[in-house]
Amino acid sequence: MTQYWLMKSEPDEVSVDDALAAPKSTVPWTGVRNYQARNFMRDQMRVGDGVLFYHSSCAEPGIVGIAQVASTPYPDPTQFDRKSPYYDPASRQEEPRWSLVDVQVVKKTRNLTLPELRTTPGLEDLVVLRKGNRLSITPVEPRHWRQITKLLGA
DNA sequence: GCCAACGTTGGC
DNA sequence: GCCAACGTTGGC
Predict the structure, then answer these.
(1) Could you write out the three-class secondary structure of A75-111?
(2) Nucleotide lying nearest to A61, CA to C1' measure
(3) Under a CB-based contact definition with an 8 Å cutoff, are residues A138 and A132 in contact?
(4) What integer best gives the mean pLDDT of chain A?
(5) Which residue in A11, A15, A77, A107 is a FRET match for A32, CA 20 to 30 A apart?
(6) Mean pLDDT for the stretch of residues A82-89
(7) According to the model, what pLDDT value does residue A122 have?
């Protein structure tokens, strides 16, 4: 069964435009160093799952595109790269600690901004809007997915 | 830059 | 296993 997710990216690192410009509009979701977010990618995501591409830590945070999970999970190569900010000296090749999936942008949309999300009736309990939420990957309920994709005309 | 909220680390 | 200290996230 198809599931739905919201995935945060800092546009300074990988924006929706960067992803669109990549081969097959697909980017590896590198740099996740939170176990809960990793577990979503490693244990629950399936190819074809729907993804809301979200820009965070920027002037106008919000949902900026529709994407999909485009690979099964595999080890995040940046954990073994000494020059990467995501290098993890505690992770071993035989037993990688961090996994990721590839994400393919299906459609760039307008920016459905955080203030707009917060004030849209029906989205009050979207996981990413919950107080104190910091998770970079959160599940999205089917009804939220339907409402948001409709709002975006996607 | 500030700071609330949360996650991780490490001493005990 | 507890919990204080510290680090990170991310909106503002």
Answers:
(1) ECHHHHCCCCCCCCCCCECCECCCEECEEEEEEEEEE
(2) C11
(3) no
(4) 95
(5) A107
(6) 90
(7) 94
Compute the distance between CA of residue A154 and CA of residue A149 in angstroms, rounded to an integer: 5
Lookup result for tokens 């994400």: A103
Give the amino acid at A60: E
Q: Are A86 and A30 in contact (CB under 8 A)?
A: yes
Topology given in CATH for the domain delimited by A4-151: ph1033 like fold (3.10.590)
pLDDT digits (tens, 9 = 90+) for A106-149: 999 999 999 999 999 999 999 999 988 999 999 999 999 999 99
Closest nt to residue A34, judged CA to C1': B7
Q: Coil, strand, or helix at residue A6?
A: strand
Whether the CB of A33 is less than 7 Å away from nucleic strand C comes out as yes
State which residues between 99 and 138 of chain A bring their CB within 7 Å of strand B: 131-134
> Is the separation of the CB atoms in A3 and A44 below 8 Å?
yes
Token representation of residue A77: 């190569």
Distance in Å from C10's C1' to A55's CA comes to 11
Q: Which of A150, A48, A61 is nearest to A106 (CA)?
A: A48
